[in-house]
């Protein structure tokens, strides 16, 4: 099956936002074994949209639209498709109820144009929107399939994963099983990882191996094709073993996980609580940790300790430490980790102190970071020398904190 | 003049990277007054690329290609265009010398396929690549213009700015000045904002007004065209006044700013320091604030107070408050804001307590949030009922905190 992704929205053509939806959907379709041959972006203009639809119908069996399902006048995706396919728009009662409920719950008046969002193509399978108002649709004709998804990624992505993926899968005529697995690595760069497994990459056939530099980490996506699922899985297992023998030290998890998710799983298993003292990271470690549903129960609380005064008065870092070794030091990191754990009555303490830039601090160059870890009555510190921007130094410090804790609790 | 941007690269269709080049070029073309009506992405396949070229020639006068100019076999953009336009590729001596020089400088052996990168369309204006090897090209026929740019953004962007922009500008018959301005609004939804200014939107001509729902905010981009810059600016001023008369209450800043940037500017002017006590937001407010370079000096420190014990023991929330009103209450929010300011010796305190979900808390539904603000010896609290996911509730709470503080310090 061949697919085309059509994004509808003048904001894309004005360069206001990236078409991240096309990237997300392309990855998902690759996993389904569906070939994507074209992406198209068209503005909020009925004539040009209809022309794009006709072109897509000449070169794809599945056409996925994103955007243009909202309440305003320039949202015209479903209206244009309905006209093109000579079908009607009908009110979907479930979608309407959900929109009314949304306004009720958030205590806002519902304007008339919001009702328009509950109109769907007559005969379409409706895809519920669990994170917004406009429902999606899956509509089939004799030889084409049309999927309509909302534009905001935070609505589109969960909708596709929960409802869209299976709708397409059940239609896919492909008999071969596509099975894939993502291996995630931290603490090694993409070029270095590829150099280490160069022989394996050069000789790949089935599974294929796709390296990708992600958000301060590197992933390898292994994809095996076979008409038998067990055989596909065996192909994956074998290739994974080969890879792990070379770079297994940097591996931390599979598929859609993260360092923080792995850490929270590990802590839940061991029934441990954690507190953080954050100087240069300014709360990023705790924010990332508590963004995982359920991880909140593993953190009692913590402190953002930007100034020396707060380090000394609130977290009892010794004045002689600050005077003799400075706040950018292993000793300060250890005291912060131990004292925040005690103040918050947690099992584990972690601390971040260092130089995010733009300026040097206490003679230490930008990128000097100490991470303190307190556990089982003992404190230790790890020193990092990080390159990159202020944002990148903060982000990687926070990730290294999770990485060191994960390795400590192995 | 109408343009289409064609990105060539299978990695885009596999979802490995975002087509950020299209965003960058669209912005640049908008500034030149060139209308972009379509983006297309096509893989490294000569037949499908030629078909995309034919379609683009039917709907655009200027076609900009990105990608496929490299040394490997699947780089075939210029070969396909040369064949389609029935012209030849010729060796460009300057480009070849620059490639040879590059290998010499980096001390690497030059392989034969790298020579291929110096081949250009016969008759094209060559655009030098100051940050890589493959040169760009600008080629004109009687009624079409073709620009070929490399795929990596770090090569493409400087090449376009230094050489591509002026090549197009000198061709552009449009003498008008394009001037634009973005107005940013918070605390009002896109549908509501559009409903409020429906008359203004319906009657727009020059300036045009493009609404866009952003990351929990709404923006309006006003774009005026005139042959005289001052007159264009006056058109913007007048339209802005009309809009502000209706929805000015929700306005917070212009162009490329954010609530947190505006708040840090305001605090710097007033020489104020701030501390936060964060329950449901788990550090997000402080992390966002300290991510702005220089804003660190405005925050002494703060507390993440997830559990009731930390709220009571570290931040001295009264036990009777917790017992009688609960931690999800205006009283608790006020005590948190006041006590964190005092603990950290800051001028202002802000606090976040509420229910991010997935479960209810103390009988309060998910989305109930109290934000406490302490300033000039007085504490007050704002109540919110937010919809959406856990992530969205946390994010919007943090943004509302910045918004209320910004309004308080007006």
TrEMBL record, chains A, B:
Highest taxon listed in the record's lineage: Bacteria
InterPro entries: CinA, CinA-like_C, CinA_C, CinA_KH, Competence-induced_CinA, MoaB/Mog-like_dom_sf, MoaB/Mog_dom
UniProt domain MoaB/Mog: residue ranges: 4-170
Family: Belongs to the CinA family.
Protein name (Swiss-Prot/TrEMBL): Putative competence-damage inducible protein
Species: Cytobacillus kochii
